[in-house]
Amino acid sequence: MSGGVDSAVAAARAVDAGHEVVGVHLALSRMPGTLRTGSRGCCTIEDSMDAQRAADLIGIPYYVWDFSERFKLDVVDDFIAEYAAGRTPNPCLRCNERIKFAALLEKALDLGFDAVATGHYANIVTDDDGNRELHRAADWAKDQSYVLGVLTAEQLAHSLFPLGSTPSKAEVRAEAAARGFSVASKPDSHDICFIPDGDTRGWLAERVGAEQGDILDRDGAKLGTHEGAAAFTVGQRKGLNIGFPADDGKPRFVLEVRPKTNEVIVGPREALDLSEIAGSRFSWAGRPPQDLGSPLECMVQIRAHADPVPATLSHRDCELVVNPEQPLSGVSPGQSAVIYLGTRVLGQFTIDRTVSAAPIHVG
């Protein structure tokens, strides 16, 4: 129970469904002020109190479990290491993968519980052979299946998402109000919970370093300087501080971050278009496809709020390889690509390499 409206209603619905429910809030930091407060994040002392009030109204036991050390190692330190390597990680996806449906689920099973229920908007469907599948939520606008794409078949077997079939978030808020929950109108959390003031660049500079380096064009010509390559992501336009325009007068975007040489490569928007993405770190959300010897038609989603695009999926040389029908834009190594068959999440991989739709020559 994060202290928000979704997990409160999910817990109440689990009780209504006849389950024996215990509310658990995750303490992810031992230092007050290192996680967001109010509506800007989750898992703070304020949120813990909100969760306890909801648990009291529902009439279920409530506990706070300290996962701060594991959260630091598996989410925060991973976030820092990925940026230091020039990649762009998704900390919410890592939290689901390594904390909520790994550390939390492991402890729950050890204590004799059957499953972990959360307020995520997603559905679990059982096929004719008894295999559990992860599917999009009924409300696509609130669908969170992307950040759950890391779940395995074993984890899906012990997961419940009571809100998955709800037509809209407005209905959840109305239900919360009817149940008397004080969080009924609490704003949704957003941004990265472990960066207190939302200044990701400044936060990274303190931990990765902010040594001045060069901003180069694709031919290797120096255009300017930056105060730390780790602060930049592929596709970024703002904050380049290049003192003169491109020859064609069009804006330039970050095409590549090179942490070893502390260089940032920039170029035109069309240079961001990719014809292929691939990764060797992948997992299947339930039963894997029977045969990937030939390309499989699918949909691929590269961000939590991006639209899925038609593509083909292949398995080559220990990698999952996706070729979109139309070029993908602004994709960075470190992002997660989630594969869909209709509404079903087939699996996901961390993007290790990309292939440009048009050759890019760097001097």
How would you describe the overall organization of this protein?
By secondary structure, the chain is an alpha+beta fold. The protein folds into 3 domains: 5-119 and 162-178, Rossmann fold; 210-271, SH3 type barrels; 272-356, Translation factors (Elongation Factor Tu (Ef-tu), domain 3). 24% of the residues lie in helices and 25% in strands. Strands 4, 5, 11, 12, 13, 14, 15, 16, 17 and 18 form a 10-stranded antiparallel beta sheet that branches. α1 (5-16) runs parallel beside α2 (45-58). It is globular and about 65 Å long. The termini are far apart. Residues 36-41 have low confidence and may be disordered.
Protein traits:
Elongation Factor Tu (Ef-tu), domain 3; 363 residues; 7 helices; single chain; 24% helix; 18 strands; 4-stranded mixed beta sheet; 10-stranded antiparallel beta sheet; SH3 type barrels; alpha+beta; Rossmann fold; 3 domains
Per-chain topology:
Elements: H1 5-16, E1 23-27, H2 45-58, E2 62-66, H3 68-84, H4 91-110, E3 116-117, E4 122-126, E5 132-136, H5 153-156, E6 159-160, H6 169-178, H7 200-208, E7 213-216, E8 222-226, E9 253-258, E10 263-267, E11 274-279, E12 281-284, E13 296-301, E14 309-316, E15 319-324, E16 336-341, E17 344-350, E18 353-356
Parallel strand pairs: 1-2, 3-6, 7-10
Antiparallel strand pairs: 4-5, 5-17, 7-8, 9-10, 11-15, 11-18, 12-17, 13-14, 13-16, 14-15, 16-17
GO biological process, one term: tRNA wobble position uridine thiolation
Catalytic activity: S-sulfanyl-L-cysteinyl-[protein] + uridine(34) in tRNA + AH2 + ATP = 2-thiouridine(34) in tRNA + L-cysteinyl-[protein] + A + AMP + diphosphate + H(+)
Binding site for ATP: 26, 119
